[in-house]
């Protein structure tokens, strides 16, 4: 029969040390334990759709607020302003000073047709229209003088260019962004320029008659002509239709210009104001 052995001092010390370790282990687990639910809650927030929805919504809202462009309203933009060049005459005063004039043709005055009036676009040659087109639609009409004057130029021997050569000249003008004076004369075909002298209160007055089929034989440089004198027969010389040998009726027209102190009549006016001064000029 074995006799029980009483624990020695060493045994008691070892037992005490083991108990301390056990107690410390329990204490460590309890201190970490409270963070475990937080960790689990955080993990739940990451993996649960209900928890992640607010985060996604917040991100989307911030992105929209940061990248959205400012809203503009084109309708509130101010309208384009017509700039009148310095030194341009008062066109209403000019019309009153020399008008009302007789029409330079029995073909209709194109009021209400902006494309046939001064200041209309001619971007195909880099410029704007400087005169009035009286469209006749047929041959047999004549151009006449609304004012007495003296012939400066009378181009009677114009030769039509080929369409290719004409297009090359127009392309050059388009690249320049303006139509050079000699290019305009090239486009006039057979034409006449009349000097009407200096009109008191108006200035130096000159008129141009272009696209004639024939210049009247009496019209020669230096000759003085009375108001109502025939300048020539209206045609389509200098036009694209003539260059290709076409028969488009609309090409048969008188291109008429009026210059005051070397400035084309109504320069700088918008469409409505141009029509108003042209109507005033002819008492229409």
Task: Jot down its keywords.
284 residues, Glucose Permease (Domain IIA), disordered N terminus, globular, 9-stranded antiparallel beta sheet, alpha+beta, two-stranded antiparallel sheet
Describe the structure.
This protein has about 280 residues and is α+β, with helices and mostly antiparallel strands. It folds into 2 domains: about 10-65; about 90-280, Distorted Sandwich (Glucose Permease (Domain IIA)). It is built from 8 helices and 11 strands. Strands 3, 4, 5, 6, 7, 8, 9, 10 and 11 form a 9-stranded antiparallel sheet that branches. Strands 1-2 form a two-stranded antiparallel ribbon. The protein starts with 8 loop residues before the first helix and ends with a helix. Mean pLDDT is about 80; it is low at about 1-85.
**Which structural class is indicated by helix and strand composition?**
alpha+beta
What fraction strand? 15-25%
Shape: globular
Question: What is the CATH superfamily classification of the largest domain?
Answer: Glucose Permease (Domain IIA)
Summed up, the domain count is: 2
Q: Tell me the series of helices and strands, N- to C-terminal.
A: HHHHEEEEEHHEEEEHEEH
Overall mean confidence score, pLDDT? 79
| Uncertain parts | 1-83
Q: Main sheet, how many strands, which sense, barrel?
A: 9 strands, antiparallel
CATH top level of the largest domain is Mainly Beta
Please count the helical segments.
8
Question: How would you concisely characterize the structure shown here?
Answer:
With 284 residues, the protein is α+β, with helices and mostly antiparallel strands. 36% of the residues lie in helices and 20% in strands.
């Amino acid at each position: 029969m074995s006799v029980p052995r009483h624990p020695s001092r060493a045994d008691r010390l070892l037992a005490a040390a083991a108990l301390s370790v056990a107690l410390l282990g329990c204490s460590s687990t309890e201190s970490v334990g409270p963070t475990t639910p937080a960790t689990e809650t955080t993990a739940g927030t990451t993996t649960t759709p209900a928890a992640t929805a607010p985060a996604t919504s917040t991100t989307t809202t911030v992105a929209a607020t940061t990248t959205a462009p400012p809203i503009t309203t084109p309708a509130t933009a101010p309208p384009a302003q017509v700039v009148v060049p310095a030194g341009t005459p008062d066109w209403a005063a000019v019309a009153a000073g020399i008008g009302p004039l007789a029409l330079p043709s029995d073909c209709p005055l194109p009021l209400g047709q902006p494309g046939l009036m001064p200041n209309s676009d001619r971007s195909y040659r880099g410029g704007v229209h400087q005169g009035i087109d009286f469209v006749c639609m047929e041959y047999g009409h004549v151009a006449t003088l609304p004012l007495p004057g003296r012939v400066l130029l009378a181009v009677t021997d114009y030769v039509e260019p080929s369409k290719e050569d004409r297009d090359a000249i127009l392309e050059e003008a388009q690249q320049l962004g303006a139509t050079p004076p000699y290019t305009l004369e090239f486009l006039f075909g057979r034409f006449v320029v009349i000097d009407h002298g200096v009109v008191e209160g108006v200035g130096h007055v000159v008129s141009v008659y272009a696209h004639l089929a024939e210049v009247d034989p009496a019209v020669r440089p230096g000759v003085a002509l009375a108001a109502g004198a025939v300048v020539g027969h209206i045609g389509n010389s200098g036009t694209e239709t003539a260059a290709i040998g076409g028969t488009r009726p609309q090409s048969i027209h008188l291109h008429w210009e009026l210059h005051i102190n070397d400035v084309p009549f109504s320069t700088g006016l918008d469409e409505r104001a141009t029509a108003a001064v042209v109507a005033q000029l002819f008492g229409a």
